[in-house]
């Protein structure tokens, strides 16, 4: 992997964002909407609940899931910028390798995700008095696993678009919503049917949110589950990288990369 090539891809995303308010605004807007929507919902549940259970800490699960989505879409949006501008073929006519390119997508995602994370923490603390730091050191493995899984899903999503063309981007936008019922963001894993629980055990975020609930309830984090989720997330990154590499080689071998256009390509 070339440091200069990878940095160049990151700089390209930086200049695109710097020159376009429309690209910067979504980094804050969607985060703010999610926090405000779910924040007021938890406050409403507090007002009608007959128990003294405080629902506001459950907003932390929403923030972490939003963090995962920001990581995933950070990778895919950097890739789609090249697709929409018809720059994909030009990119690989240069000395940039596939490792350089994917590395640049990951670093670009880190850049945009950090901006969103800061905004997320600030809004949640200022409006609802919730601090993610209240979860202690357990917050670090939570964020790490979600980051790794978000990167894996982002790379996998780019492979889908590369293989089936820009029209396939509509397959990737709903991916976080499709995954969310299985990873028990809003309810314990035991709530799910037996077959969904087996599927959930294959997804790293399910261990994160189970551990998060244990932390909120005053118990120790589920360290075994966190270790297993880390291994799973790293395995997904490896699988996603192999998938993207194979799809890329297929695109080169068949000439698909040269025929890339706004239409779906078979």
The 3D shape can be described as: globular
Terminal CA distance reads 31 Å
Q: Into which percentage range does the β-strand content fall? A: under 5%
Q: Helix-strand pattern, N to C?
A: HHHHHHHHHH
Count of individual beta strands = 0
> Main β-sheet, in a few words?
none
Number of domains: 1
Structural class: mainly alpha
Helix content: over 70%
What gyration radius follows from the Cα positions, in whole Å?
A: 20 Å
Number of helices: 10
Task: Give the structure's gist in a few sentences.
Helix content is 71%, strand content 0%.
Can you tell me about this structure?
- It is a single chain.
- The chain is built from ten helices and no strands.
Pick out its properties.
266 residues; mainly alpha; 10 helices; 0% strand; globular
Set out the fold topology:
Elements: H1 3-18, H2 21-48, H3 59-84, H4 88-93, H5 98-128, H6 139-164, H7 175-179, H8 194-200, H9 204-216, H10 223-254
